[in-house]
Amino acid sequence: MTAYLTRRAALGLMGAVPLAWAGVPEAKANSQLGFDELYASFGVLGLEFSEKVKQLSGQTTSIAGFMAPPLKAESDFFVLTEIPMALCPFCSTDADWPDNILVVYLNRQQTFVQFNRPIEASGVLEYGPWRDPDTGFLSLLRLRQASFKEV
């Protein structure tokens, strides 16, 4: 028996395709974050993270800024700053933590760039106090499994 597709059957199939796609979740796009969106306010206990940071936590996020000079040439992390910075404020306590930096932990070693060259870093966003067990450095906000590119 030979099967023929009638016009009515074809139209019915075409109408069903969008319904089938409606159940497929859309892939999450890389979210953008700006330095002015990191913190909600300066509360009694210091910096309070913004709702956007809390919502993006655990997701791949991008932020543009500048690379602070690394502490050593073969490091797998750097500090991303809002403005070019010749010195790294990375060893501060969490009470003194600047509101315009975050730490970027690279997923692979990359060649660092000059501190005054704009870059975009992308990685999985994490927030909250964390002390790196290898270096002893403290961070309040960081990107993990990250990479960067010049922009």
From TrEMBL:
| InterPro entries xrefs | TAT_signal
Q: Sorted alphabetically, which keywords does the UniProt record give?
A: Signal
Protein's UniProt keywords contain Signal: yes
Tell me which positions the record assigns to the signal sequence.
1-22
Which top-level group of life is the source organism from? Bacteria
This protein's name: DUF3299 domain-containing protein
Q: Which organism is it from?
A: Aureimonas fodinaquatilis
